[in-house]
Amino acid sequence: xxxxxxxxxxxxxxxxxxxxxxxxxxxxxxxxxxxxxxxxxxxxxxxxxxxxxxxxxxxxxxxxxxxxxxxxxxxxxxxxxxxxxxxxxxxxxxxxxxxxxxxxxxxxxxxxxxxxxxxxxxxxxxxxxxxxxxxxxxxxxxxxxxxxxxxxxxxxxx
Length: 158
Fold this sequence. Notes:
- The protein is of the alpha/beta class and 158 residues long.
- It is 39% helix and 29% strand.
- Strands 3-2-1-4-5 form a 5-stranded mixed β-sheet.
- The protein is globular.
């Protein structure tokens, strides 16, 4: 399905992405979901893990969405996670300067995913937007539904 969803030209028309993560217990069974919209095309993605955290699922939703794009794109990415939005647009710069450690000199949590996201984000022009979760925002509500579906698919497999 990946090849069916891309811009016709590098940095062409806008792709809108809505992402969310869910966790049944924290840590616990988790799910992630992403809704990608480009013109009339939409792509829904979801998945989950047996033992994870909500923050990991929030990050993984963004990573999987960006991995689905086949070309460099202009993106407006919506997340209800301030951890993701502030992490990628503000905090990451100082983490990288301190070799992926926090002000306490300890490694930052989820550095494996942050490093992955950092590399993927460099391929695109992304506007990182925070939206309040569970407030009726259509794209965010769909991403939440997909994230919960991802978690439920893991529960069914257990």
